[in-house]
Design goal:
Elements lengths: L1 H15 L1 H28 L16 H12 L12 H23 L6 H25 L6 H24 L5 H7 L2 H5 L18 H11 L1 H8 L5 H16 L3 H20 L3 H24 L3 H4 L5 H6 L1 H26 L6 H4 L22 H25 L12 H14 L9 H15 L14 H6 L1
Helix pairs in contact: 2-5, 2-6, 3-5, 4-5, 4-18, 5-20, 6-7, 6-11, 9-12, 9-20, 10-19, 12-13, 12-19, 16-18, 18-19, 19-20
């Protein structure tokens, strides 16, 4: 009995001891870093295999929501109070604006469903923003390690590349198993312009979707390089990402990859590291020339149209096949723009994007046919000027991080490169409304807003005065 009382006294003393409590909170912060990374892994690799929803939410979207609830209820280890940032305001105003658009559609357009459709839309849209909130809150807790989360993200892209390459090359007959696991045939049966079997696409539903996911992951390697923690595994993963991008045979992927290369050159120039900028320019130019030689020498039809004029492409039979999808998109773009011009403020999504109880799209006079794969046109047609304001604000907030590119902030350069990549990819994809892009984008935005800095052992980038003195 006296021994029990003594043990209880020791436990109470350890709990009240500041050193013990700090150690406990640091442990929780480290666990939180791993849990968010695990949620990211599941969202990319496992969620497509389990499309059924639980309370309007996919199974592997629930972990990040439960983590957010835990952080809301448990304030232990919190170091600072967070304030609304421009990133929060941009997202919340966009959601509120779409709510007004639904009211407008109810009064002056057409509205076939009720409030539940708005709730489902918000649940989907907020998926990426939830990662921003959770990571930002985690960075305000003692013990949270951004490096651990980045490691999880890089590992996720490593596994994605292995799966995609195994599917594309049908390594050991794994294509049929991968297609079955991710329900590829079922999805492609209802898809306009599905990917070919030899294109890398899993775990995404389309090759272009996969390439957008991978392109958004490339800026993470810039952050790792700046942190002086670039290891052999990162080199292997970077090589796999580049190979997988080419194995998707995605033309917009190649164009956006070139834009990423030019963004890296611009970033190095802003940092006044002209020797590395010249080296990067030489590497990018060499890759472009080498790629052009390979495409023309081996007559790779899908990429050859990038180096031919529109007249030449239209004359050749292969050119007609490889540009047919592009022509269909242009026709759909023209039809949809006409609808958007008649509803310039709120767009037509409030009236045309309604889903009924059977999860079938409601078609009416505001519905446009075909694919609209241009993020700028999609934002205008679907959400009007409200949508354009949203995407331009997101891009500006990322681009503006370049002003911190010569400071100790680790992810400022990564955010700038990511913005250039999204701008280029948006020409032919709705990347800023795609979960695969916005999860990574929101996490990098959280790192930037919380001003994650270089570790103490890494020397700060030298100023111009220091360079002159040297």
């Amino acid at each position: 009995m006296p021994g029990d009382c003594l043990n209880k006294a020791n436990v109470a003393r350890n709990f009240l001891d500041p050193t013990s409590r700090l150690s406990h909170s640091k442990g929780r912060g480290a666990i939180l870093s791993h849990l968010i990374g695990l949620s990211f892994f599941g969202s990319f690799l496992l969620e497509p295999a389990f499309p059924k929803e639980i309370l309007f939410t996919k199974p592997f979207d629930w972990p990040i929501r439960l983590i957010a609830l835990w952080l809301l209820l448990n304030r232990f280890g919190k170091q600072k109070t967070l304030k609304f940032s421009p990133w929060d305001i941009t997202h919340l105003l966009f959601v509120a604006g779409f709510g007004f658009a639904l009211i407008y559609a109810e009064l002056f357009m057409v509205r076939d469903t009720g409030l539940i459709n708005y709730v489902k839309w918000m649940n989907t849209f907020f998926n990426g923003y939830l990662y921003f909130l959770v990571v930002r809150e985690g960075l305000s807790r003692r013990g949270f390690d951004s490096y651990v989360l980045v490691r999880w993200m890089v590992a996720t892209f490593f596994v994605i590349c292995l799966v995609a390459l195994a599917q594309a090359k049908d390594f050991a007959g794994t294509r049929v198993y991968i297609d079955t696991f991710y329900h590829q045939q079922e999805i492609e049966a209802h898809m306009q312009g599905p990917s070919a079997p030899w294109q890398a696409r899993a775990p995404a539903s389309h090759a272009n979707s996969l390439v957008i996911m991978l392109l958004c992951g490339l800026p993470l390697f810039i952050a790792l390089w700046d942190m002086a923690k670039f290891k052999w595994f990162d080199w292997v993963t970077l090589l796999l990402v580049l190979v997988t991008i080419f194995m998707t045979y995605s033309r917009i992927g190649v164009i956006a990859l070139a834009a990423t290369g030019f963004a890296v050159i611009a970033l190095l120039s802003v940092r006044r590291d002209y020797k590395k900028a010249a080296t990067a320019a030489f590497v990018v130019a060499t890759i472009i020339v080498g790629f052009a030689i390979i495409v023309t020498s081996f007559d790779v039809g899908r990429f050859k149209v990038l180096f031919e004029s529109s007249a030449q492409a239209s004359l050749s039979q292969a050119g007609k096949q490889d540009t047919s999808g592009w022509r269909l998109r242009q026709e759909s773009l023209k039809r949809s723009i006409e609808l958007g011009e008649n509803n310039p403020v709120f767009g037509v999504m409030a009236a045309s994007g309604a889903n009924n109880q059977s999860n079938a799209l409601v078609k009416n006079s505001f519905t446009y046919q075909g694919l609209l794969l241009n993020v700028y046109a999609f934002a205008f047609v679907s959400y009007g000027l409200l949508g354009l304001a949203f995407i331009f604000m997101v891009l500006w907030l990322l681009l503006s991080q370049v002003r911190f590119a010569r400071t100790r902030q680790v992810f400022a350069g990564a955010a700038f490169v990511l913005a250039i990549t999204l701008m280029a990819a948006g020409i032919a994809e709705n990347d800023l409304f795609f979960d695969g892009a916005m999860l990574t984008t929101n996490i990098i935005a959280a790192f930037c807003i919380m001003r994650v800095s270089l570790p103490p052992e890494v020397k700060q980038l030298p100023t111009e005065e220091e360079r002159v003195a040297a």
